[in-house]
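Class prep. Sample record?

___
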Amino acid sequence: MIKAILGYDFSEYAEKAIKFTINNLSNRIHYLELIYVIGLNKLVILNSEEIYRFKAEIEKKLQEKVSEISKYITECKYTIAYGEDISDTIYKYAKENKFDLIIIGRRGLNKIEYALVGSVSGKLLKISDIPILIIESYKIYDS
């Protein structure tokens, strides 16, 4: 059985990663932890009351998501982590807590977007010695 961590940010890409995990891996994963990373740069612009409200709102949403997932994967929890770099923070947490697998959704950035903002999944691939499952998301255009 697998102990997995899933990078979660409430985006449609993270939702697709959860859906894929439930549909394809729920019989193999005995423990799933969602990790939400709060960038330290975000906290600099907030006062202590705003930080408290922001964290409480995130925790409430994460608890709801864990409750949904627990119908399919019995042991599911969440963690809120703080760091300057999302990829580094996810990797360090996964390494310290001996996870077998990192799961992450991929936005499918084009070359310009990738050059401007980088890619969490791309950086994780470069730095991690823990296996990574990247759930690809494709843009669909109506004609």
About this structure: Confidence is low (pLDDT under 50) at residues 112-117. The chain is about 45% helix and 25% strand. The first strand starts at residue 2 and ends at 7.
